[in-house]
C-alpha cells in the first residue's frame, strides 16, 4: 500500500465525473421499504391467524428476518440524508426502518455518521474498530477469551453475529447518551424504549410461541445478515492514521438481486467515499475508483470475505497485522500482505509477550 490519502482527496477527483442528480435525494427508494413492510404485515397475520406447522413458521421467520435486515439497510440510507432531506421526516422514516433492530435514529447518527464515518479504522476514535494487541493486558475477560483455541473462537464469533448488532447498539447507547444535550436526552431515551416496549407488548398480545417466529428468530436472522456485511466492511483492513476509504474499507460482490433487496450496501468503499449520495449511484463511483486506483481498491466476493474473516484472528498488531496471541501467528491485512486466495501466517516462534497485547473497543 502506498501512502494514505484523505477521503476529500479522492472525492475531489471523482466528484466532477458524477452526474448532478447523484447528489440529490431519491425518495423513490422508499418504495422498496413499503414493499418490505407489506411482507412483514403479511407474515405477522399468517403466524398470528393461521395454525401453520413448524416448518412454515420457520420459513416465515426467515423471510421476516431478511425483511428486518433490508429495512435496516434502508434506514442507514435514510439517516445519511440521501432519501429525504427534511430532518423530522428523515428521523421518522429512519426510526421506522430501524424499529425491528431497536436502534433509534439519534443514536445511529451520533454513533455511525458522526463517529464511525469521520474516524473509520482509527484505533482510538472509531466505535466500530476492532481491538488491538495492547488491550489484552488491560482486560481480564479479553485475555481469557483469547486463551480459547483459535478454531473454537472463530466458530463462536461466526455464530455470535446473530446477536452482535443488538448488543453493540446497546453498548453504543451507554457510550454516547452522555454526549447528547440534556434537553435532547429524553428523546434519545424514548427512541430506545419505544421499539423494545412495542415488541415486548407484542409478546403479551400474541403469545410466546408466535412471538418467537415474528420477532425473536427474525431478530437473530437480521442481526446475522447485517453483521455479516458490517464484519466484512472493515475487519480485514488495517487500522489507519488517515481516514483513507480505499485503505480502510472493503466492498464485497453479491448477485444483483441481493444488491437490489439490500439497497447496494455491498458497495462499502463507495459509501465511505460518498456517504451523502444515494447508493443507487455507487456503481458509477466504483467505475471511477477502478479506473484511477485499481491497485488500492479492495473488492472480493461476499462468501470469500466471510471465509477470510473466519480464517484470520480479530486482533490487531501494530495496525497492519492481525494476530492470534495464543499461538503468536501473525496475518497480514488487506494491502499489507493478506491474500484471500491463500491465507497464511508468520509464526515468530512464540506467543506475544504480555506487553504487546490488545487495546481499543469491542463490537
TrEMBL record:
UniProt entry keywords in alphabetical sequence: Membrane, Transmembrane, Transmembrane helix
Region (Disordered) location: 335-363
Entry-linked InterPro entries: FA_desaturase_dom, Fatty_acid_desaturase
Pfam families: FA_desaturase
Membrane-spanning parts: 30-49, 55-76, 144-167, 188-206, 212-230
Segments forming domain Fatty acid desaturase: 54-300
Keyword hit for Transmembrane: yes
PANTHER family: DELTA(5) FATTY ACID DESATURASE C-RELATED, FATTY ACID DESATURASE 2
Protein name per UniProt: Acyl-CoA desaturase
Amino acid at each position: 500500500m502506498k501512502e494514505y490519502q484523505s477521503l476529500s482527496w479522492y472525492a475531489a477527483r471523482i466528484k466532477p465525473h458524477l452526474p448532478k442528480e447523484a447528489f440529490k435525494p431519491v425518495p423513490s427508494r422508499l418504495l422498496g421499504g413499503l414493499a418490505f413492510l407489506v411482507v412483514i404485515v403479511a407474515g405477522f397475520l399468517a403466524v398470528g391467524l393461521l395454525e401453520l406447522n413448524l416448518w412454515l413458521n420457520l420459513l416465515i421467520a426467515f423471510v421476516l428476518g431478511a425483511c428486518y435486515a433490508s429495512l435496516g439497510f434502508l434506514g442507514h440510507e435514510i439517516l445519511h440524508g440521501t432519501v429525504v432531506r427534511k430532518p423530522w421526516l428523515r428521523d421518522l422514516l429512519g426510526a421506522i426502518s430501524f424499529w425491528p433492530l431497536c436502534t433509534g435514529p439519534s443514536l445511529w447518527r451520533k454513533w455511525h455518521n458522526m463517529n464511525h464515518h469521520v474516524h473509520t479504522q482509527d484505533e482510538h476514535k472509531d466505535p466500530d474498530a476492532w481491538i488491538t494487541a495492547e488491550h489484552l493486558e488491560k482486560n481480564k475477560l479479553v485475555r481469557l477469551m483469547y486463551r480459547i483455541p483459535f478454531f473454537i473462537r472463530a466458530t463462536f464469533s461466526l455464530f455470535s453475529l446473530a446477536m452482535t448488532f443488538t448488543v453493540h447498539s446497546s453498548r453504543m447507547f451507554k457510550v454516547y447518551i452522555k454526549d447528547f444535550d440534556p434537553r435532547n436526552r429524553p428523546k434519545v431515551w424514548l427512541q430506545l424504549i419505544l421499539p423494545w416496549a412495542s415488541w415486548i407488548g407484542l409478546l403479551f398480545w400474541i403469545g410466546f410461541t408466535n412471538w418467537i417466529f415474528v420477532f425473536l428468530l427474525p431478530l437473530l436472522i437480521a442481526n446475522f445478515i447485517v453483521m455479516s456485511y458490517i464484519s466484512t466492511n472493515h475487519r480485514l483492513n488495517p487500522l489507519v492514521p488517515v481516514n483513507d476509504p480505499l485503505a480502510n474499507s472493503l466492498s464485497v460482490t453479491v448477485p444483483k438481486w441481493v444488491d437490489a433487496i439490500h439497497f447496494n450496501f455491498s458497495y462499502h468503499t463507495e459509501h465511505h467515499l460518498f456517504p451523502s449520495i444515494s447508493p443507487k449511484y455507487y456503481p458509477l463511483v466504483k467505475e471511477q475508483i477502478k479506473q484511477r486506483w485499481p491497485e488500492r481498491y479492495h473488492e472480493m466476493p461476499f462468501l470469500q470475505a466471510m471465509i477470510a474473516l473466519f480464517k484470520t484472528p480479530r486482533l490487531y498488531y501494530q495496525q497492519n497485522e492481525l494476530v492470534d496471541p495464543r499461538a503468536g501467528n501473525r496475518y497480514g491485512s488487506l494491502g499489507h500482505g493478506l491474500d484471500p486466495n491463500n491465507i497464511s501466517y508468520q509464526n515468530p516462534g512464540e506467543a506475544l509477550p504480555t506487553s504487546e497485547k490488545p487495546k481499543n473497543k469491542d463490537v
